[in-house]
Input
Amino acid sequence: MTGAAQGLGYAAAARLAADGATVALLDRDGEKLRAAADALGAQGLTVLPHTVDLTDEEGVRAAVAAVLSAEGRIDVLVNNVGIYPHRPFEELTYAEWRRVLAVNLDSVFLCSHAVYPDMRKRGYGRIVNVSSSTFFIGYPGLAAYIASKGGIIGFTRALASEAGPYGITVNAVTPGLIATEGVLEGEEAGLFDEIVPEQALPRRGEPEDIAECIAYLASPAAGFITGQTINVDGGHRFH
Output
């Protein structure tokens, strides 16, 4: 589980661990990660925290190797990490563009590439990639973010086709506006008043709503679903 220290990652980790999984928590923020691991451990859940920069290939491969050494296998990978700086396009620098794509898209490649050989060898795996419903809308000021999240959808479809013969499913989830810590503390918080009334389900989306979808796609029950993009936004947009 990447981006596991808070928000969607924390909620999904809690959900999967509640189902009995041992969940490896990967995040670059060591302090928040330790707090998350302590909170989940206090609930009787089994988690393994690994502080790692998910844009660093050697660091990612070392973390995956440590999990395989400790647990013997990796059944599920959830790629959830993401940053979303708001920047008018004319002010967006190439360095900022590259940083967003490195965190949001390169990390998906690196983590998937690291777990893939073990999943292929065993003939089983679930990869769930967290994209964003902004891909279907195209909000201004988010060119780098939306480009990265669109890339995740394309990657999901391509890898699903290649991985299917080996018993590996690859799917994407596109959350709508969700009440994570990052959203509630940022400028997006004001969007709830605008977006919630437009939803078919007129309530605020919570991290647990996304966690439920991730848990299903990560389960054996979803064995005939692959290459799909599941939109979880309360019916704000239909695709």
Summary: The mean pLDDT is 96. Residues 94-122 form the longest helix (29 residues).
